[in-house]
């Protein structure tokens, strides 16, 4: 019987505040668990200290959530938390190291896409967490070996093409995330990106 060898998931992130602000409402969380990688990208409505304060509250909820594989329940909990708050665009994702199985829930105008032999965009539902949450659902796909997954906020142009995409498959992932934000980000808005490589 052939034994499957877990592949390696490498990840990096980068967050930049809007021009004129020292803090902002974007937040990128990457946590490695025994069998999967957990990603969360938060983009609180607005900018500056108030958005930053809300982002910290949401970070506390996310990091304190026990079952991070249950991203649907976590999204609903974040919605309840923000019902009297500013509201936020939130994306949650898990990637299994053994199979490359991606599970994704996104609410609002963030983008989750893969780059590789078979590029793909995952569906992000319209709405604002805390204000308008239609019935969320989990989108799924499988990563192929060497695929790159990019998760980025609306401070980054939703559609872009990288002139030298091959570099994405070799550069450190923090550098990849930073490059996406600095090259395709809007200076007047908070911008964030998480990059994952499956090898």
What would you say this structure looks like, in words?
Residues 10-198 form the PPM-type phosphatase domain. This is PPM-type phosphatase domain-containing protein. It holds the Pfam family SpoIIE. It comes from Blastopirellula marina. The chain has one domain (9-198): 4-Layer Sandwich (Phosphatase 2c, domain 1). A hairpin with a 4-residue loop joins strand 4 and strand 5 (101-107). It has helices spanning 48-64, 71-81, 173-184; strands at 9-16, 26-32, 36-44, 88-96, 101-107, 111-115, 120-122, 127-128, 132-133, 139-142, 148-152, 191-198. The mean pLDDT is 91. The chain is an alpha+beta fold and 199 residues long. The protein has a five-stranded antiparallel sheet with strand order 1-12-11-6-7, with helices on one face. Strands 2-3-4-5-10 form a five-stranded antiparallel sheet, with helices on one face. The chain has a two-stranded antiparallel ribbon with strand order 8-9. The longest helix is centred in the N-terminal third of the chain and has 17 residues, at 48-64. The protein is globular.
Task: Give the helix/strand layout.
Elements: E1 9-16, E2 26-32, E3 36-44, H1 48-64, H2 71-81, E4 88-96, E5 101-107, E6 111-115, E7 120-122, E8 127-128, E9 132-133, E10 139-142, E11 148-152, H3 173-184, E12 191-198
Antiparallel strand pairs: 1-12, 2-3, 3-4, 4-5, 5-10, 6-7, 6-11, 8-9, 11-12
Pfam families: SpoIIE (PF07228)
Organism: Blastopirellula marina
InterPro entries: PPM-type-like_dom_sf, PPM-type_phosphatase-like_dom, Ptase_RsbX
């Amino acid at each position: 019987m052939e034994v499957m060898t877990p592949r390696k998931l490498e990840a990096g992130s980068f967050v930049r505040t809007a021009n004129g602000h020292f803090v902002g409402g974007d937040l990128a969380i990457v946590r490695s668990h025994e069998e999967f990688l957990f990603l969360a990208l938060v983009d609180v409505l607005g900018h500056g200290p108030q958005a930053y304060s809300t982002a910290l509250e949401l970070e506390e909820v996310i990091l304190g959530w026990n079952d991070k594989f249950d991203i649907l329940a976590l999204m609903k909990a974040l919605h309840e938390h923000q019902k009297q708050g500013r509201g936020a665009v939130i994306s949650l994702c898990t990637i299994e190291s053994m199979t490359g199985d991606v599970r994704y829930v996104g609410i609002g105008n963030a983008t989750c896409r893969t780059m590789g032999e078979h590029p793909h965009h995952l569906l992000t539902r319209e709405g604002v967490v805390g204000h308008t949450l239609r019935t969320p659902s989990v989108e799924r796909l499988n990563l192929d070996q060497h695929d790159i997954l990019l998760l980025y906020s609306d401070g980054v142009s939703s559609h872009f093409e990288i002139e030298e995409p091959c570099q994405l498959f070799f550069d450190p992932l923090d550098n990849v995330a930073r490059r996406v934000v600095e090259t395709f980000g809007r200076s007047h808005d908070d911008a964030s990106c998480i990059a994952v490589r499956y090898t």
